[in-house]
Design a protein that fits this description.
It comes from Ferruginivarius sediminum. This is Class I SAM-dependent methyltransferase. The structure is a single chain. This protein is α/β, with parallel strands linked by helices. It has one domain: Rossmann fold. Helix content is 35%, strand content 23%. The chain has nine helices and nine strands. It has helices at residues 11-17, 22-30, 39-46, 48-63, 78-86, 100-108, 145-152, 190-198, 206-212; strands spanning 7-8, 68-72, 88-92, 114-116, 129-139, 156-165, 171-175, 182-186, 225-232. The chain has a seven-stranded mixed sheet, with helices on both faces. It has a two-stranded antiparallel ribbon with strand order 7-8. A hairpin with a 6-residue loop joins strand 7 (171-175) and strand 8. Helix 4 packs parallel to helix 5. It starts with 6 loop residues before the first strand and ends in a 5-residue tail after the last strand.
């Protein structure tokens, strides 16, 4: 990915991608019957925008390889195995989607994958990295985007993000895991996302701010907006 170039996922881009849908073909090539039980693989199979986003974020890691990669919250798919075979690849993920038997089966068939089953905030960075990827995590699922960038940008060459947000008010009722409270969480919009990115030298132009605030041509039926960006890290060899 080209650093600091913001791109927004649109239905037109998805339609153009589907002319070949190369990621679906790669899934057919490398997947086993057991892989099809993985929740993230099911989502990837069913959702064309997710396949487009996956190709943009991970395409070079699937093809050329040879990089030191930390994948934060990326889940388990057959393509995770392929990237682990071709890169020095570690996954940091709570693995909330798959049951333990499914996870154990996948890991037994994926010996090259290093995995830390923890919150990324508690993860200890053991060495400098080439690339850190967070796909469909910030800021909709996890609103700690600023803390994430503060933690990882100093230790890598590049952070790649797919950012999910809503430009119409959207909120969630959720229960605290460590308490008896019900919380109402308001999803981030493009303006708030832009303000956070600007602190790290990204999405600073008015054109980029405007792009993040557009609410037309969503690639998803629920109106979510997704933008991709790679932010240059502070690591220098």
């Amino acid at each position: 990915m080209t650093p600091n170039v913001l791109r927004r996922i649109t239905s037109d881009w998805v339609e153009a991608y589907l002319q070949e849908d190369d990621l679906a073909g790669l899934l057919d090539e490398v997947s086993s019957e057991q892989d099809e039980r993985l929740v993230c693989q099911t989502w990837l199979r069913k959702t064309a925008p997710k396949r487009l986003i996956f190709r943009e974020l991970y395409g070079d890691l699937l093809n050329q390889g040879g990089r030191g990669v930390l994948d934060v919250g990326g889940g388990l798919t057959a393509l995770t195995r392929l990237m682990a075979e071709r890169n020095t690849f570690e996954l940091v993920d709570l693995l909330a989607h798959d049951d333990q038997a499914t996870v154990d089966s996948f890991l037994a068939r994926t010996p090259d994958l290093a995995i830390s089953r923890t919150d990324w905030l508690d993860y200890e960075i053991k060495h400098d990295l080439d690339i850190v990827v967070a796909n469909d995590l910030f800021p909709n699922v996890d609103q700690r985007l600023e803390m994430f960038l503060e933690k990882f940008l100093p230790r890598c060459q590049e952070v790649r993000l797919s950012l999910t947000y809503y430009n119409e008010p959207r909120s969630y009722l959720t229960r605290r895991l460590n308490g008896d409270e019900i919380l109402c969480m308001l999803a981030w919009d493009g303006a708030l996302t832009a303000r956070c990115l600007a602190k790290f030298g990204a999405a600073q132009s008015q054109a980029e701010v405007d792009l993040l605030q557009r609410n037309d041509d969503s690639a998803y039926q629920n109106g979510r907006q997704v933008s991709l960006i790679a932010i240059e890290g502070y690591r220098r060899d």
